[in-house]
Amino acid sequence: GFDGSGVKxxxxxxxxxHVVELLRKKGHEVLYVxxxxxxxxxxxxxxxxxxxxxxxxxxxxxxxxxxFRRGQAHEGVVLLRLHGLxxxxxxxxxxxxxxxxxxxxxxxxxxxxxxxxxxxxxxSR
Length: 125
Known about the structure:
125 residues; 37% helix; 6-stranded mixed β-sheet
């Protein structure tokens, strides 16, 4: 089936380096805000992801506001709500979402919790 290859990701600064490194190790193309331009605002982060054709991985729920209330364009947003997991466990959780649901993440807003994932389509463009 679909293995998530060909999907590019942009990890927000708040996403642990473990997540970035595991995705890269598995062959995914991952941009990391912490390496590119730390401390840019959410609006710029989402613009950067969209310009790069990347799905945004973030643990900052403010992106839901940008996408749903303000209708900012995006390629897909994955909100990580993995509190209480060790960084290595978070990385494994994200990898499994990418490998299982990669094809559904484009232009959607997904919320990843330790035991489940919810994917909302965010309107047609």
